[in-house]
Amino acid sequence: MKGGSSRYMQSFSMRSDILLPDLIERKLRLVDGDIIDHPMHQPFEYDYEGQDSKCQSLDKLSLSNLGDDTEFLNDLGPKFMTLGNICHQTAPDNTTQI
After folding, report:
1. With the C-alpha atoms ordered 31, 34, 36, 41, is the resulting torsion angle positive or negative?
2. d(Cα 29, Cα 34) in Å, to the nearest integer?
3. Could you tell me which residues come within 8 angstroms of residue 26 by beta carbon, excluding any fewer than 6 positions away?
């Protein structure tokens, strides 16, 4: 690096260190109090659907609701047939007699 450019970088660094607190202070003064006035910064409240909602709760969604009928997976292609096979597997019995 040339001597002149390092001197330039040093003076630029010192100058930016001096200006940075002033810049932050000015930005804080501009923002102070404006956040309340902007609706995009306020939380959005959604309507409550209540118990009359026709949609099924996401907690109740599972493959067990389908029973053993996974024939629809055959229409989706070979990758989904593998999914059907995985869903029909039973868990191994890991209990041992003592």
Report:
1. negative
2. 9
3. none
Domain ranges of the chain: 1-32, 62-89
All residues at 6 or more sequence positions from 73 whose CB lies less than 8 Å from its CB, including other chains: 80, 81, 83, 84
Q: Which pair of tokens denotes residue 30? A: 């501009």
13 close to 5: Cβ distance less than 8 angstroms: no
pTM: 0.22
Rg, Å, the chain Cα set? 32
Side chain identity at residue 80, one-letter code? F
Please write the tens of the pLDDT for every residue from 47-89: 766 666 666 666 666 655 556 667 777 778 877 777 777 776 7
